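TASK: fixed-backbone design
INPUT:
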């Protein structure tokens, strides 16, 4: 009882080991709850929520019959290519808009507004330009990532320039005090600071990008998890759909883990 009260204490603390154990208990509780509500099929129709056992049984079939591993690699490749294209454009454009007042006044408001554009409505434009192949999907995904990454980059630059932001603006003031020129300030202050901050935003954006991946792959069902989900949706094969959704979640968790591990390597000046 004393331990339970400690866990329920307002603003209390739980050790790392205890957190791991409680997390596993949470998984067991959710699994048992899932089993309970799907046991008889009366609470929720199997067409809406299948039993966990039917989902588990569908996984070997996805690997043996539908080449799940190959489709996973296709989706991951598409996601990485989309990120690469988006950042190749977003980083230099973001620095121009954030640092040069003329470009800031010309374009900043419009790039911030384009974030509200519903991406599925512009898919036809990418099809008409790139056709229905991999390049279309990668470009469509890159566009979706670009319109979120660019305002993030500009925002981080403006935060660094904000004199009221004493915590970060001190880097620029210190660089000027020791006599750095503009190019040195850009190289040693702006670029490391902005890329480190944007890296964290990109890590969060990975979760959103898989929504774009599924949309892109459904436009031409030649490969990828999104294409498989589209096919199984038309066939009303709910267990396979849920299995693929769990696969996407696991990929996202793995990517997030890799992002955490790579940060100290890419930005060695930060604390682990």
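OUTPUT:
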């Amino acid at each position: 009882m004393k331990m339970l009260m400690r866990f329920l204490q307002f603003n209390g603390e739980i050790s790392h080991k205890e957190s791991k154990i409680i997390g596993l208990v949470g998984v067991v509780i959710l699994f048992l709850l899932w089993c309970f509500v799907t046991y008889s099929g009366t609470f929720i129709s199997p067409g809406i929520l299948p039993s966990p056992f039917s989902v588990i049984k569908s996984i070997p079939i996805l690997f043996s019959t539908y080449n799940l591993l190959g489709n996973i690699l296709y989706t991951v490749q598409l996601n990485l290519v989309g990120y690469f294209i988006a950042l190749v454009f977003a980083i230099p454009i973001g620095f121009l808009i954030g640092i040069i007042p003329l470009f800031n006044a010309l374009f900043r408001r419009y790039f911030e507004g384009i974030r509200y554009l519903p991406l599925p409505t512009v898919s036809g434009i990418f099809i008409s330009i790139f056709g229905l192949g991999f390049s279309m999907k990668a470009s469509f995904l890159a566009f979706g990532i670009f319109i979120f990454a660019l305002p993030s980059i500009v925002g981080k630059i403006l935060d660094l320039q904000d004199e009221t932001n004493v915590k970060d603006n001190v880097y620029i003031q210190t660089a000027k005090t020791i006599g750095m020129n503009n190019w040195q300030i850009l190289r040693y202050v702006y670029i490391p600071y902005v890329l480190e901050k944007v890296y964290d935003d990109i890590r969060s954006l990975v979760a959103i990008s898989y929504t774009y991946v599924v949309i892109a792959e459904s436009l031409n069902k030649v490969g990828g998890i999104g294409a498989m989900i589209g096919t199984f949706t038309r066939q009303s094969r709910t267990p396979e759909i849920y299995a693929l959704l769990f696969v996407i979640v696991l990929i996202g968790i793995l990517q997030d883990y890799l992002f955490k591990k790579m940060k100290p390597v890419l930005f060695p000046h930060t604390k682990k």
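COMMENT: Residues 182-219 form the longest helix (38 residues).
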